[in-house]
Amino acid sequence: MVKLRLKRCGRKQPIYRIVAIDVRSRREGRDLQKVGFYDPIQNQTYLNVPAIRYFLEKGAQPTGTVHDILRKAELFKERAS
């Protein structure tokens, strides 16, 4: 099963990549594809929307935090239409 979850990149300041990754992999493990990033300090996000939609259509499940980020970006409102 594939999940969309956060992968930490920053050492001192937390910066996260949003990645599609196999459930059995650890947080810092090998990802399938990078689909965005999230900076909680500056509250910036970048999302590769076509890649995220592709993984969601294939059955990938976002974690709680990634789900909140996608909801704030109004990705689910576009899917419902």
UniProtKB/TrEMBL annotation:
Keyword Plastid: yes
Predominant localisation class: plastid
Domain of life: Eukaryota
One annotated GO molecular function: structural constituent of ribosome
Gene Ontology CC annotations of this record: chloroplast; mitochondrion; small ribosomal subunit
Keywords of this entry: Chloroplast, Plastid, Ribonucleoprotein, Ribosomal protein
UniProt cross-references to InterPro entries, sorted A to Z: Ribosomal_bS16, Ribosomal_bS16_CS, Ribosomal_bS16_dom_sf
A family per Pfam: Ribosomal_S16
GO biological process, one term: mitochondrial translation
Subcellular location: Plastid, Chloroplast
Family: Belongs to the bacterial ribosomal protein bS16 family.
Protein name, as recorded: Small ribosomal subunit protein bS16c
Native source species: Clivia miniata
Taxonomic classification: Eukaryota, Viridiplantae, Streptophyta, Embryophyta, Tracheophyta
